[in-house]
Amino acid sequence: MGVVEELMAIESDLARGRGVAYERVLHADALVVVPGAVLTRDECVRAMDASPGWDEIELGEPHLVESRTTATVVYPFVGRRRSTTYRATLSSTYARDDSGRWRLLLHQQTPQDEPTRHSLPGPTQINLVVADVARAGAFYRDLGWDVVDPVDPHAEIRFEGLKVELDERSSVAYWNSGNPDDAAAATVLSIHLASRDEVDAVWTRMTGLGYESRQRPFDAFFGSRFAVLADPDGHQIGLLSPWSDEHRFDPAGPAPL
Q1: What pLDDT shows up at residue 176?
Q2: Cα distance between residue 180 and residue 160, in whole Å
Q3: Where are the domains of the chain?
Q4: Is-same-fold flag (3-111; 118-181)?
Q5: What is the DSSP letter of 100?
Q6: Which residues, including other chains, have CB under 8 Å from residue 108's CB and lie 6 or more apart?
Q7: Distances (CA, A) of 162 to 125, 224, 229
Q8: Which of 12, 171, 176, 234 could form a disulfide with 184 if both were Cys (CB 3.0 to 4.6 A apart)?
Q9: b/e burial code for range 149-158 (CB count within 10 A of at least 16 → b)
Q10: Do the beta carbons of residue 103 and residue 94 sit within 8 Å?
């Protein structure tokens, strides 16, 4: 195994590991430079023990720079955790200790993504028009969301930075006189789940409770495991796993029913 293969194997273990993995590899004087912080060895170990870790990782093609006493690998990194995707260029410099083992001296992360600058703020509220707010609330409770006890004809589901409101159709004209008569449009409100298996598990649980499936779980062309449920009023709820390049392909036709 060459130097670059050795170091990338260590990097892969660290990306998947907890504090103990870093404790084994970090040099006593190591520094870890991450967005917003410069961590010592002990601080890094504690931070990794507190981190939830990544659901999926991708380590790109590395570049190796060697000197007489050190070796540095630089490579693109992608980490995914639920709906969060982190892209960065990573650089790690290693030196061998007296026993010949590689020790990490310096690690630095340079994020690749910059915040998108919109001219208007993003959405903070979604209103779903329903026939019966209690019936709709039962669906979303079964799905796993905490529905605030309805005050007819209205109920709320609150998330950090976003609120989903359930409004009975009879009340909508009071605030939207142009609302169409259709129970639901073709919009799909998707939930980003932690894994491909969780998509299947949630779909199986909800259909087992008698709720309608619009799309059974399948490996979608864009790299995710995907399924679609319908609430009692026909609003479509997508179940979406993290995507990966290895699962992407050019679609040959409609999704399997």
Answers
A1: 67
A2: 29
A3: 3-111, 118-181, 184-257
A4: no
A5: S
A6: 32, 33, 90, 91, 92
A7: 5, 24, 21
A8: 234
A9: ebeebebbbe
A10: yes
**Fold (CATH) for 118-181:** 2,3-Dihydroxybiphenyl 1,2-Dioxygenase; domain 1 (3.10.180)
d(CA 63, CA 129): 54
Polymer length in residues for the chain: 257
CB 11 within 8 A of CB 109: no
Burial class for 58, CB neighbours closer than 10 Å (0-12, 13-18, 19+)? middle
Nearest-Å Rg of the Cα atoms of the chain is: 24
- Distinct helix (H) and strand (E) counts, the chain: 6, 14
- How large is the greatest C-alpha to C-alpha distance in the chain, in angstroms? 77
Task: Please write the tens of the pLDDT for every residue from 122-181.
Answer: 677 788 888 899 999 999 999 999 998 776 788 999 988 888 988 888 877 676 666 666
Six-digit token string for 213: 């499936």
- Asked, as a colleague might, if the bond just before 242 is cis with ω within 30 of 0, I would say no
